[in-house]
Amino acid sequence: MHHKKQEEEAFWAKQKSRIELFYHYNYIGINSFTYTKTHKLPTGTYVIEGYVNDNPQLSFNANADPNTNFEGEGGESAELSEMVKPQYAAQTKSVSQILKEKNKSEPSK
Question: Where are the beta strands (DSSP E) in 20-102?
């Protein structure tokens, strides 16, 4: 039982770091994150709700499939969507795309 709880906490922590990477990369002026709720839908999808910059008007809900990780799916308030960087207005980059770019730009060891 305890092991299952640790696995779940590790899953949520990983998703939160992916959410933060997604919003920092695709949006302007993101400084902080507040997470308000985590739950699992009947479909099996995990949802993390929260907001940015200590402003509940800048809210989001991020979806993560149990077999994959958060990639950018979910929803957000109109106020938060106005903060998307102009170059990503038509299409934001997924977390996998961002990580692939970061891996290319970092020198190999």
Answer: 33-40, 46-52, 59-64, 74-76
